Amino acid sequence: MPAVSKGDGMRGLAVFISDIRNCKSKEAEIKRINKELANIRSKFKGDKALDGYSKKKYVCKLLFIFLLGHDIDFGHMEAVNLLSSNKYTEKQIGYLFISVLVNSNSELIRLINNAIKNDLSSRNPTFMCLALHCIANVGSREMAEAFAGEIPRILVAGDTMDSVKQSAALCLLRLYKTSPDLVLMGEWTSRVVHLLNDQHMGVVTAAISLITCLSQKNPDEFKTCVSLAVSRLSRIVSSASTDLQDYTYYFVPAPWLSCKLLRLLQCYPPPEDGAVKGRLVECLETILNKAQEPPKSKKVQHSNAKNAILFEAIALIIHYDSEPNLLVRACNQLGQFLQHRETNLRYLALESMCTLASSEFSHEAVKTHIETVINALKTERDVSVRQRAADLLYAMCDRSNAKQIVAEMLSYLETADYSIREEMVLKVAILAEKYAVDYSWYVDTILNLIRIAGDYVSEEVWYRVIQIVINRDDVQGYAAKTVFEALQAPACHENMVKVGGYILGEFGNLIAGDPRSSPLVQFNLLHSKFHLCSVPTRALLLSAYIKFINLFPETKTTIQEVLRCDSQIRNSDVELQQRAVEYLKLSSIASTDVLATVLEEMPPFPERESSILAKLKKKKGPGAVSNELEEGKREGGELNGAGERPGDSSSTPSPSADLLGLRSAAPVSAAPPSAGSLLVDVFSEAGPAAPAASVNDDGFLRFVCKNNGVLFENQLLQIGIKSEYRQNLGRMYLFYGNKTSVQFVSFTTTLNVQLKPVDPLVEGGAQVQQVINIECITDFSEAPILNIKFRYGGALQNLSLKLPVTINKFFQPTEMASNDFFQRWKQLSQPQQEAQKIFKANHAMDTEVIKAKLLGLGTALLDKVDPNPENFVCAGVIQTKSQQVGCLLRLEPNAQAQMYRLTLRSSKDTVSKRLCDLLAEQF
Amino acid sequence: MIKAILIFNNHGKPRLSKFYEHYTEDTEQQIIRETFHLVSKRDENVCNFLEGGMLIGGSDNKLIYRHYATLYFVFCVDSSESELGILDLIQVFVETLDKCFENVCELDLIFHVDKVHNILAEMVMGGMVLETNMNEIITQVDAQNKMEKSETFIFQSPRQDR
């Protein structure tokens, strides 16, 4: 008999669903849904109390509408009411609605918790399961607070029904994941672990998920689970397929549970107890043996289940990485799967082999499959599988097969799917560098990479090839020759032009002896690409040209002519124009010696982890990313700075470079240790500029009543502010002054709102400026936080400042007469519209100073309004984009008591409050 | 952990969506669309696993799916689950539905969303597997139906029911 007979159910619901299905258009569907929503809403709101059946029907309709992708913003209360019904059907539909539609932040949680509490104590297993399900589905902190104590008790109690135990285990797991601090296992630990021995396989199935999660977090407390898991596994593996009856799935005994047991064991190292270990090895061998036996069924489900266990066993063998015998067997098994006709198995085999390749015992064994894997890369129909094949090739690569693998990957790149090209490019670049025996092969590979997949070659990759060429003089001549040849192609990728420009600019002289690549030929070749390139590449080429002038004086006139032409010297792009002007000037006024110094060959880059590797790690997801990567990223950033202006080779700021306004963007970390940098180290040791993690708001309050001044100052840095405001708009100029004689590098500022980047270098004694445009959208109390980071000497400096943007900056002064003022004052008489403070004077009570401050606030100071001439009254309107807020202010000084009373009234309570708080600190 | 279980038809119409992590309604709909887009463009007879879409966590998650006649059953899981194990689980789910509805078809899922949710709830709870034994699952569902039947008599006759 079918468990759900088709005749019953709710007719109204069926009719509604049919209506929707018959709708011819999206519009008609929406119309029908809106009609139904209105109907349900009116039914819920109606006076007539709905019976449980109707409520159930309407809630079902809402669920259906929700599934179609429409927001449901009512019905929650009705669902909660259903929970307290004592009819199963109503309760059940109530819980269903809540688990689908209520999220953990809902205000209804308290009501739901009450219903759950009742059901948990009802001792009706069905109700208890519903309640436990609901907790597991919503899993909010409030629920954890309410039930984290109760659920372990239900889980381990002797008289709890099996089905309830199962639910309790997973419910507890969910609470542990959301609020681990609230789930105290202590006294329950051993009884929970012993659930692995429970007679009911369903209980073990549920409990093992809980135990696995707890073991990952507290391995020591749960380590007794290892021997229990091994014996459970052993009993399953050695059982005949009929022993476990219902848990036998297509002739495989308890496959799901076996997988989970093998996963649990992967949380621990191999068992120390010899007997346990022996038993486990026996299990693993049995599983490997079974794979070779003829299948008990031809159904795919049978082999699926069998192989699921096999793959987990192999994963465990790889995890232990200590049994060479098992490792080799595992590798052979995977090798068989590599040629299996089931795509799923090929996929999984490639994936498992990836981890196997990193084991020293099996690396060689994995390598024997290289031809199969290469073949998979070429012939698999499924991109997911090809990607795994590429991963495996990457993992099995070493010095012996690098050339073959890189060549195969390169040729695959020509036809690779777009989605994986970038990753492939990174992998090829890394392998080429890692296993390069001769660097000419490396240069060839990278240039090929650019030729084949130029669009996917990220900056990191071409920066890296330049770094390596600069650092190795044995490859420089070859590199120059090769890029020169590559540039001969009529259409070459812009990245090729960049690499070519850079390398010829540095090492073009090494091939200039050959008349086919004479200086002028080189220059003409580069310049023929110039007009097709983007601005950054053109900038790079201009720098290459000035380097040419230094390398080959005979090209000077030709190049000067190019620089002098209007399209360079009057280029609308300021960077290009500046370079053209400066280089032209430099080449015409500097003596050969100066020129040779300024345009000297780039110094070697410091050896460091490849930034490409960091990038790949990043692509591979945050799990693999450690602090190391952060380091790599930052260095990558510095390299960027170097890459953009390759012409400026002055590694120490020389006077002539400064004279020309060339920002020395050479990698500062690459500067040879000089007396200067030693000095810096001494300073930074002794210096006061400890990383300021907390927000500094010393200067903040001083700017409430003024717009210009010094916001922050320490021994290193001074920050000045100039700001102007009109209506709801403002503009703030920030001036960062370097008080030392050494430059700040990697100077960045971030605001918790958007900010244009500031020049990353601040020269010693120099000042850079940053402009912030401000628009007041609505009233606010929190000031934006400006975060400043830079490197001074070796030390990273970190500074957080509250920017003095306060609500009063958007005041428009309003002049008004006495009558008007008091009329409005009375209009704003609701208690929340007023804010008042009585406070002691912090400064001398000088009338003129007070007046100046009130004017600085931005309001109009109203004369002859207050009957008491000692008092000050002001009026103004705060302009925000969304609204205008009128404000009135009264300040009453009491000279005898040295006290003030400050009263603010405005049409918005938050504005009154904020202004009052700000002003109370000013007098 | 299972992050989400989605069923949609060949045209991308969702027939069941169950998320075990919280997303806004809007994101949930986008995830369904994205997943449909990823899965539906794949040929038959390719492998049943692929990396998850961006919205549901990218390559940290896998989509494991099976295509039955007009319906796609997609489980989005993290790396702690066995791929083949999940395929078996999908099979158990479908076989269970088949037993409960007697030759299940898309229409059954449309008209009995609540039942499908209940059956699923007997298998998966909070993203973890509760029970894999089909007979056990069906016993539970049967018991629920019995309770429902016994209560139906109390309800008013569903005749002028709109």
UniProtKB/TrEMBL annotation, chain A:
It is a peripheral membrane protein. One of its GO terms (molecular function) is clathrin adaptor activity. The keyword Oxidoreductase does not apply. GO terms for cellular component: AP-2 adaptor complex. It is found in: Cell membrane; Membrane, Coated pit. One of its GO terms (biological process) is clathrin-dependent endocytosis. Keywords: Cell membrane, Coated pit, Endocytosis, Membrane, Protein transport, Transport. InterPro entries: Adaptor_Complx_Large_Subunit (IPR050840), AP2_complex_asu (IPR017104), ARM-like (IPR011989), ARM-type_fold (IPR016024), Clathrin/coatomer_adapt-like_N (IPR002553), Clathrin_a-adaptin_app_sub_C (IPR003164), Clathrin_a/b/g-adaptin_app_Ig (IPR008152), Clathrin_app_Ig-like_sf (IPR013041). A 1,2-diacyl-sn-glycero-3-phospho-(1D-myo-inositol-3,4,5-trisphosphate) binds at residues 11-12, 43, 53, 57-61. The keyword Endoplasmic reticulum does not apply. Residues 623-659 are annotated as: Disordered. Residues 701-804 form the Clathrin adaptor alpha/beta/gamma-adaptin appendage Ig-like subdomain domain. Adaptor protein complex 2 (AP-2) is a heterotetramer composed of two large adaptins (alpha-type subunit AP2A1 or AP2A2 and beta-type subunit AP2B1), a medium adaptin (mu-type subunit AP2M1) and a small adaptin (sigma-type subunit AP2S1). Belongs to the adaptor complexes large subunit family. Component of the adaptor protein complex 2 (AP-2). Adaptor protein complexes function in protein transport via transport vesicles in different membrane traffic pathways. Adaptor protein complexes are vesicle coat components and appear to be involved in cargo selection and vesicle formation. AP-2 is involved in clathrin-dependent endocytosis in which cargo proteins are incorporated into vesicles surrounded by clathrin (clathrin-coated vesicles, CCVs) which are destined for fusion with the early endosome. This is AP-2 complex subunit alpha. It comes from Astyanax mexicanus (Blind cave fish). The lineage of its organism: Eukaryota, Metazoa, Chordata, Craniata, Vertebrata.
UniProtKB/TrEMBL annotation, chain B:
It is found in: Cytoplasmic vesicle membrane; Golgi apparatus. Gene3D superfamilies: 3.30.450.60. SUPFAM superfamilies: SNARE-like. Belongs to the adaptor complexes small subunit family. Part of the AP-3 complex, an adaptor-related complex which is not clathrin-associated. The complex is associated with the Golgi region as well as more peripheral structures. It facilitates the budding of vesicles from the Golgi membrane and may be directly involved in trafficking to lysosomes. In concert with the BLOC-1 complex, AP-3 is required to target cargos into vesicles assembled at cell bodies for delivery into neurites and nerve terminals. PANTHER family: ADAPTOR COMPLEXES SMALL SUBUNIT FAMILY. This is AP complex subunit sigma. It comes from Astyanax mexicanus.
